[in-house]
């Protein structure tokens, strides 16, 4: 009986690993594409010299990919019918430079290692590389993902955090991806880079509530700056930095901004205004090492979300097209 039970336990462990989450490995391509990380890093660095947008665009692309269908490069698919993941309303603001970075890296990898490396893994590596280029920490990226076979715009709604979310809503959507509140706060630190279009936060300036036109949690001087940059009925293409202090550096100033009432989104500022999350924000604001460590852990956990491994998915030749398309 004991032998039978032990056998069942081993079988269950095997089945868990077969589902994928435990099958990513550092140095996954050591024998099949040993120069992979160097190739991707070179392409990302070259792209960065052309435009800084490469950095926030690639990092955001990774997040948006993983939260819908898992980290499987499904966000990269281009559909002639305009019904792929990237065509969803929540993804229309993804900057083209993120897509271009991954596409160029894939093309370079294919020259040396044809048909070996997934677009999903290249995106994961590129996300790490752009953080480093912006002055942030480095980490070992777990690899072995395969590219997904599904990319539908209809699957995006409700799976990405909204700029007006409160803490409970943020925790709920992150928990769906096995990420804790601590992980969520750490990953929010990515807002130390990049930009946002005015319509994503204009309600905080012009129509916050019946009792206050301007969100009272905003620092008054910061609110004035935002109004000057984003007047009512402004051109929808206008965008501003999410971090008003050090927008081109990956650092912990994002959290210092939250403490000072300079969080751009409601979902940013709530991290400090809610007593349940405030201690973590205060710690990250004071201790950059703590933030960096938490960010690394959270990024590695994010990279395991919904991965396809083994016989699942495919290895695309072109990141924008399914293999048999």
From TrEMBL:
Q: Which PROSITE patterns match?
A: PEROXIDASE_1, PEROXIDASE_4
Record flagged with keyword Metal-binding: yes
Q: What is its main location?
A: secreted
Q: Which UniProt keywords apply?
A: Calcium, Disulfide bond, Heme, Hydrogen peroxide, Iron, Metal-binding, Oxidoreductase, Peroxidase, Secreted, Signal
Residues bound to Ca(2+) 1 are: 65, 68, 70, 72, 74, 85
Indicate which residues the UniProt annotation says bind substrate.
Answer: 161
Q: Give compartment(s).
A: Secreted
Record-annotated Plant heme peroxidase family profile domain positions: 23-323
| Site note Transition state stabilizer, residues | 60
Q: Which cofactor(s) does the record list? A: Ca(2+); heme b
Q: Which family does it belong to?
A: Belongs to the peroxidase family. Classical plant (class III) peroxidase subfamily.
The protein in question is named Peroxidase
The protein's organism comes out as Gossypium raimondii
Q: What lineage is this protein's organism placed in?
A: Eukaryota, Viridiplantae, Streptophyta, Embryophyta, Tracheophyta
